[in-house]
Design a protein that fits this description.
Chain lengths: 904, 103
Amino acid sequence: MRKKKNKKKASKGVVHPDPRLTVKQLCMKGSQLLSRGNAAEALSFFKQVEKKTGRNDEIDAYLFSAYLLYHKQLLGKGFVSESSAIKKEVCEYFPGIDKVSEEQMAAYFKCCSGEGAFCAYQYYITKKGLSPVLEQTLADLLLQKQCWSNLDGFDATVPLKRDSEAIKQALPMMEEGKWEEARDVLGSITRQSPFAPVRMFCRAMAAFYEEDDTTFLRAMALIHEDFFLKPLLDNLAAALTEIKDDGKRSNVWQHLDCFFEGPVMAERQARDLLFELNHKSAAGCAEKIKKLAASIYPNDVDAAIMEIISILWRSFSDKGYYENSLSTLINKLLPKDKADLMISKFVFLQSAKKLSDVGAYLALLPVEFPNRREQHIAHSLILQSTVSATLNKNVGFDESLFDGRQPWFPYAKLLGIQSTDIDMMLVEILRESIRLDPDNRVGYELLSRLPNNSKEAKKAVEEILSAMMERFVDDPYPCLELANLYYDKNAFRKAENVLRIAMERAPHDNRVLDRHALALLISADKNIRHERYHLSWPDLEKAQQLKRKKHVVFLAAKRVIHRNQAENVSIEKAIDLETLNFSMVDYLRTLAIILADFQNNLYKNRAVVLSGLSGLFKKQIIKTGSMTSGEIKALLAPIEKQYRVLLPNFSMVQMCTRYNPKICRGLNDEDFISIIDQVLENSLLTLICNELNCRIKNKKGLKSRVLEFYLTVIRYMNGEIIGSAHFIDIVNGAPASERRHLEDASHRLALHAHGILRTALQKFEFGILDPLIPDINMMQMVEELEKLEDQKGRPLSRGEVFNHLMENYPVPSILENDELYDDDDDDDDYDDDYYELKSMAEQLEEFIDNEGIRNLPNNIIKDFRNLMRSSPQNRRRFDDLAAELKPVTDQLSREVKIFLYGKA
Amino acid sequence: MLNYFLTLDISPGLSDEKIREAYIHLIKKHPPEKDPEGFQKINNAFEAIKDKRSRARTRIFFPTTVVDHEQSLMAFAGSQRINRRRAGLSELINACRKIHKEL
């Protein structure tokens, strides 16, 4: 193989002239090679001739041509130093002006020294006259070498000399980059001048700096190819065209640093980085990120690195190598404090609801926000987003959060959590957020979405809204929210006062007008019930004038009742009068509201009116068969929270289903689920169960699974099923794509659930629904035992059942210490001996561990405690033990405290 | 975050007023009728950093707003304005010599 290659090489090598050839033959062969463009071989033939005959004009002409061509070829191939070496030979064999063409002469000028070229041209003029081509070459030389003295010997009429003055005048401007001025100075240069390309070059450069790329390209096209700056201009033109075409940058940009400021190659570096990332080479990414960052923003490379990592964060996570690779990469690229910050930030963003992650990020916030004010704003935003994420996902906190060993405890101050009240937790976090950034309106608005069931929470919300009212003096929002809060507390006077302020602040605001109309309705309602009809009618008239669509049904209902009570108009006639242009949905809702109002209040002629109304409503509600699913959904929708003042405990679904039990049949599955989500309550469980059972038949796939999930939750609420098996069957039976729908349904249903079920639905984990003791299915045993009968054939009472159960149940040995519970035994040692108590506490801790109760939610531990205390004998033992252990309660774990005392 | 500052051709740490000035200067240069894409980009950048609260929000939650990381990275790489730099004749001759050498 090697031999073959060598042969091939040999055959391709330079042909050496045959020494037997004559001079004539050598010259002929050399000329042939030269005409074919083979300068190197032609040279060897001519050299052979020179060797044989010595130098003469003919061989000099041959050698000059061959060297000139060879020089050009070497330069073309990029052999700059080699081609420069040839220049000497070109000059040496110059055969005289008569024997060379104009083109060769120009090439010769480029090879010889400046002075030599100008002398040669002077001689050329005397022999052959002026040559524009040669003058252009010399003009290039003048500009490159600045050898203006070489023109001294030229006649003033020679264009090169004639136009050189203008060039010399423009030269300082060109040197300073004032191309526009240079262009103006060179305006007198004609197209025929040897300096015409220079003038055109100045015009192109001026256009470039004026960002007129079209003129630049046009001027550039007029410059001949031999102009010495043409390659640079070609690159610039290519770069400008690239930007216009697709915005991407190729290699031409690397020679254009002189024309641009900024990261010229950044886009190319970014593409390289993405390529590296797509090929999962995290190590390679580090270097590329660093280079790209330095290129884009050299003033603060760390900031640029953080930006790049932030952009790439999701992609790392998506590619599944987030945990290790990203952390390693961040640690490699950034100083420790910034790396820790980035990592904790990404963990926070990944799970915004985890308090420990939020706390860890907050602790590092000064690194990201050194300015104190900005730090407060950022801190506030983070707390706010935590609350918002918790509310949006409906993933509540459970009481186990207050276990002292929880990882967020060290950050409690940063989180603003002061109490150990689960209801107050979100309010406290938000209160801290507002404290840090009191001008942040979103924080206040979020407050109204918080469940404020406890008295403390209501009080805190009231305080914050009052503060907001003072801070935002033109905003009616806090007044309206406060009014809602006061109406909720039946503090009507306070509500009316803040509403008055809201009216002063924004009399034309729709929210204020709505609330004002509602306040008038509430006032009218009170007056009708107190038979102050002279006051109720003006309120109703004013409410009517406000034309609030939202209240139209309630307004009509109140007007009907007023007409009936104050003006003795028959209820049917009053209804006809007030519901003249109503849609069927509004008409039925008005009827339902009037009916409920008469049922709740002791109006005049109540019985007669109720009888007539019931008949009318029953007659009309049957007509829902012709209504669309959307209309039925609108009909069944619960009344808004703000109307509860007018009709407490009113349920539209209950009212409608009482008169038409099959009304839900007209709803499609989506609307039915939406209605369940809005109105799920104990009194409707059986009805909803039946409807779900009907719908599940003949259905498959996602819809069926979601419906089954709803049914399972409702059956659990109804006490028909226990344990997690049904839930787990549905969840495990669903493909991964459907699990999200089930999880969403679970979160929605959690709003209506309580206790363990609520926790299970919130977390979408149903294992906790199983009985606590793995070996004994307690509830099942209870169920079975309840079926037993005593000797007289009576079913066992619940107490008897539990006594029976306790015989087989592992009671803590400490409870079996009869001595301890013997009332007569007054052993002082037990009371006084602290260490003995400690030992008892340890036994209880051990019991908690052995039974697997440790770390379970409070409510489950409470259930366990209730079960254990269900027998009177055990209850006494519990209470005595609890009393005994009082001196060491501070040393008991949360679980033992709940087990003994019912609370932590 | 940095991306938005570079889009507005300003350095981080400027006051709200200065940011606004830079924004107004740029939208005058890139009016929506002539350069809708550029205008949108400038507008988005301004909205993200116009005041302390916006800046804090952007800085914290920026990673979650990235939908297409490739597009975002390219946008960041191209966010630094590349300005045309005044070069004199000698500098251009030297640059041209470099090209000759590499050719």
